[in-house]
Structures are given as C-alpha cells and as structure tokens.
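Section: Multi-chain targets

For targets with more than one molecule, the full set of components is provided together so that the structure can be written out for the assembly as a whole rather than chain by chain. Components appear in the order listed by the source. The example entry contains two components.
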Amino acid sequence: MDREGETSRPEEASFRLASLNERSPQGAKRTPSRLLVWCALAWVTIVCLAWLAERVLGSRTMASLFSRRQAP
Amino acid sequence: MMDRLFAILAWSAFVLAALSVGAALLYRSDDDLTIGERMAIAFLLGSGILGTAIFLVGLVRLNRAVLLACGIAAMIPMLFAGPRKWLLLTTAAATRRVLRHGIPHVLVTLLLFVSALPRPTGDLGNDAISYHLLGPVVWLRHGRIAPVPDASLTAFPSLQESIFAGGIAFSSDRFPGLVGVSMIGAFVVLVHGLALVLGGRTRWPALMSLLALLSPAITSHAASAFVDAAYAAYALAVARLLLAPLTDRRRLAFGGLLLGFCIATKYTGLSLTALTVLVMMSSQLNRTSWRYRAASLATVAAIALVVGCPAYLRNLFVFGLPIYPPPPLLLKLFPHASFPYEAAVQLQAYIRERGHGFGRGGLDLLLLPWRYTLHTSNFHGAGGVGVVPLALGPIGALAAPANPAKRRLLVWSGLLLLAWFYTQQESRFIIHVIGVGFSFAALGSEWLVSVAPRLGRTLVAVAAVLSGSYGGAVLAKDRVPEIWLALSPRAEAFERERRVPYFRALAWLETHRRSVRKVLVLGDDVPSYYLVPDYVRVRIHDGGPLFRHRDVGTALAAVWSMGVTHVLVPEHSGCSLSRATERFPALRLAYRDDSASILQVVPPP
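Its structure, encoded as tokens over all components, is:
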C-alpha cells in the first residue's frame, strides 16, 4: 500500500491489520474468538480504572494492591 | 536575549551539519523508510558521526578552530548534487507531511524547545550539573577532552557531551537542551515508524507517537543536558534498521554505526549491542545461509565496536581499565587500575539501591509493567508514561496478527527490559523500550477498533484522553515555568540565584575573573560546573580518583605551588576562617556572605 510521501513495505503489507479479514488458504475467514475480544476490552477497562483510581484517590486504592513499596 | 539567539543559531548549524552528513550516507540507500524516518535517521547518523569526530579530535585539541573545522567538513556533502538534492526533497516532503498530519507534534516539540532555552541550574544531585555539563566546560577551558579529576563520571563515554562541547564553544550552556529536544523529536518519529512496521495505519501510530511525546517520563529530561533521549533515539533507530525486514544491505552498516553511537553514549550500549546481535542471530535462523548470517552479524558488531571504542581505549590508557569508574568485578580483572576498590563497591551499592524499584524477584518481574505504569515515580520517572502502553501494548503484542518484525521487537524489548530490571531500574534508562510499547499500543488500538468498533473505539479514546490529558498537564506544570524563564531574562536571573548553590560567592568569582586564575574549593557540595575560573578541589564527591592533597591543611599549605589565587570556603566545610588566616598568613578574606567566604592568596614575595 502506498501512502503519500512513503514507499511501500511489500514484506510487511501482508501483516497489516487490514488482513484481519483476509482469508486463510482454505478460504475460511479469520476472526478472533469472542473470548479474546472480551478479554482485551476488559483488560483496557481494568487498567484505565486502576490508573484513574490511583491518580484520583492515591496509593490506598486497588492500584496499589500489587505495590508494597511506597515512593521514596 | 542575544545568548538565546546564539544558542538557537548554534543548534541550527549543528542540525544542518548533522543532516548534511546523514544525507551523504542515506541518499543512495534504496529502502522502505518513511520520509520522517529518513530525516530522523539521517539526523541521528550525522549527529553521531559529528560527536565521534569531535571526541576523537578533542582528545588532542578542543577549541573553536578545531570545532569550526569539524563543522565545515560536515558541510562538504552539500557541495555535491546527490546529497543536496536528497536533503532538499526529503525536507520539503517531510514538511508537507508534518503540516498535514503532525501539527500537534510540532506544537508540543516547539514548546519543549522554548522550555529548553533557560540556562541549566541545580545542585550536585542533578546529573547534568555534576558531570554531563561539567565535562564540556572544563574540556573547553583546558583545550582537550580528558576526564575531570574531581568527577570520575566525566570518564563515561562522551559522544553526546562532545556535541554539547561543540555547541557551548560557540554559544552557551543553553545549547545542550536544544539538542535533547531534537533527539526526542527523532525518537517520536521512530515510534511512529516502528508502529507502521508492526502493521499500524497512519492514524493510530500518529496518535500513539503524540502520546509518547506527552509522556513526562520520556520527555521531561529531554529539554535538559541529559543523554538518555539521544541514547533512546539511537536505540530505536537500531531497532528500525536491524530488526525490521532487511531491504538494503547498507542498513547493516548504518545499524552498526548507530549501535556504536549507543556504546559511545552510555555503557549500557554494550549490552544493547550484544542483545541486538543475539536477536538478529536467532531471528535469521532458517532463512539465510550461515555465511551470509555470520557476515551480516560480523559487519554490525565490528562497526559498532570500532565506532564505540574510543572512549573505552582512552580510559584503558589513562586509568588502566576500559570502564571507568569500574564495577568491583572489573577491578579484580584489572588489579593495577587507579581506582580504590572501596569506592567502586560504594558506587555499585548506590546504583543498586537507587535502581531497586520494587525489588528484583520473580514476582516483581511479573508485576513490573503494572507497577511501572502506576508508580513510575518509584523508578525515578515522575509524571509517568500514561495508561496507553500497559492498556493497549499487550493487546498489540499478543492479540494482533504476528509478523517477523513484531516477534523480533518483542524479544529485543524483553531482553533489554530484563537487563534493566536486574541492573538499575531507572525510568529514563528504558525509554526506548517504552517507545516500542507505544508502537505496540498503536497496533493494539487498531486491532481493538477493528474487532469491536464501538466499544473498542470508546475504550481506546478513554485511554488516549487519560494519558494525553494527564501527561500534558504534568508536562505543562513542569515546562511552563521554564518557558517563562526562557522569555524573561529578569525572571531567569532571579531563579538562577535561587537554584544555584553558593550563587553569590560564585558570581563574585566570575565578576573578578581577571584576578582570579585558579580557585581552591573546600567542601564537597560546591558544583564545580558553575566555577568560571579554573579550580582544584580537596575532596571528591563521587568516589573519583584520589588527590595529592587529601586534607584542607596540606592543600592550604600548597596554594602557591598549585598556582591558586583564591580559596572558596563554604560555611559548612568545617574550615575555620580565623584559624586558616592565622595559620596561613598568605590568605586574606576577600568576600563573605552567609553561605560561603572567599580567601585571596597573597602572591609569594
């Protein structure tokens, strides 16, 4: 794929995420499992919430559950 | 304001010279780098070659004439049509692209640039003051690059400091911060480029590279005279050239050069080189003949070692061992080296303690990404890196489709992280790996949005807004006062008086520089960097080499033989002024304030 001002990367082109919908040699559409998608969505949510809680409420939140040592 | 202008002019000349050298290397290279990557890698190659040249020449002689000759030599490629045309076309294309897609990046970089203009201040706790800048100013004073006796850390590999010296010679100490900002600019371009290599499309890499630029743990040191931004930029360029698919064999040479610059910038460049070669070796199995593979790896390693070795050879000849100050283990291998074993043990203990993070156990390693993201300050990375690398990076690494470059980058980053984890867990030492994390986050964002368009897009937006707004706010809080100092000379002078230890005494010495030839400094906490005249010290602050005069009494008795004209006595140095002037009649009080006194040495009859 050519972009303005850039040359293409033929070796990488086949790995682009557009290829999520590409078909395997057998012709079956490759889609990720729903479990994987939900896990990914849950992970982003957990990290964002933990980070937000840490910034808003400080080190007494769930974010510090895994962090025994306090900042010097 | 004129010295600010001179600093900008010196920086412009440096960038032009670096791009000229880089263009001479890259203009015949036929590969798949984006326009931005070409500019960034040309700049990095050029600045590394310039720094290496200044260091090599500076070992013999360092003054404006020599530096000017280096600059003129760097501009020679512009006399030839090929490199000149390449540079003009690439610059024009890069400008068009930036105006179309990178306005936010340019604005943030511009603000960082302005915030880098104030003169550096701080005490000995600031690495820039204690050695990154001390080396260049003393080298320029003495006309030669050599380790400064009272600061053993000036014996570190000094590629970046050599560049600082080059700019300071023609302008002022405002120059190094500007170089740091340009390095972080190249770093961000490479984060974007790596995300494209991994398979991202323009929108997500652009967003993630902006978030990387807004991460205080990555960016806050860039505007000061630290070398970590440059090291990280060289390292990312190495990853881009050597770990992505090899489309041009010249890349091996360029990658080797960049690895050499890493070695010549920091000692950790040695482990970076070893691990990069290891990853290249393992990833090329089953793909090429062993002869081709061996020749490629030998080319990379040989170029890296040749380019990186000058500072190590200098240390070997001067101190008797290549790495100085040495770790205790190395002292056992080089028993005749001139460094006290106890000082080496102390320095290692300090490094281990400072870089302890949350611990070095197996569980600590597993929890590292979580802890680093939420408690970056425990790793001396105040402000953090936002939520994006942890939230979206693993998705890009694990869920999104694999490709060879992705696997190599993952292994490379993992190995570097391990080396960092077991040595010194200091946030700024690992920002190149965090940069790779942002590239993976671009891939993760793209995957998430493609598989769950509505919810995925919302979550990516939330993560980006959290990261960008918090990082931007912290960065603004940190940088806006510096921008104000850059614009107001009066505010800068006031702030300098507040931040520089013993400011008034040091200013007195600077004002009387005609009569002050050499200062004997008593006490450990006076930053030598601010001393405009030449100086000698009695004690050392970092376990550096031993001095002839190890106590105040013998040093004061030897002021005439040392050519000392003044003695700087901090109030807390433990030296009694009345006893000193009584015992040594050659000393007379010349200046005194509530923090320090200055004794004048009466010339011998």
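The longest helix of chain A spans residues 34-57.
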